[in-house]
Amino acid sequence: MRTSRAVGLAVAFFIAVTGSKPLFSQDPVRVAPKNVKVVFENNRVRVLEVRIKPGEKLPMHSHPPHMTYTLSDFKGKYSTPDGENTLGLGKNSAWSWTEAITHASENVGTTEIHAFAVELKEPPRRKAGTSQKPAASKKN
Fold first, then answer.
1. 132 located within any domain
2. For residue 100, what are the contacts with CB-CB under 8 A and spacing of at least 6?
3. What is the per-residue pLDDT across 95-138, written as a single tens digit (0 to 9) for each?
């Protein structure tokens, strides 16, 4: 009885501290504060500015589903927790979409990686009895 109570308290503490995210799920702002800055945040999105100089590496971190807008041409190497590596070429003024991901990043090119990532948060919960459709506009 005492052991199960201790385990239950430990699990509750773990969830409170980590927000129930897996241990490998790290916030890029926390693991690479020199390279990743929050430039805007509200209850729907968080916008990150990312700058990685040639040769720099960002440790393993996670993103929810997000859009990225690149401000430079670049060459990056991305590694997943299972060891898979991907080489990515980015173009200036390009948008891309990525589902939730955990990866480490490395600038293997000769130019700085400069981008904005618009991370999506959970949609707001609707109150009971509210419409999901926009209100119809009145015609005069």
1. no
2. 62, 63, 64, 65
3. 999 999 999 999 999 999 999 999 999 876 766 665 555 555 55
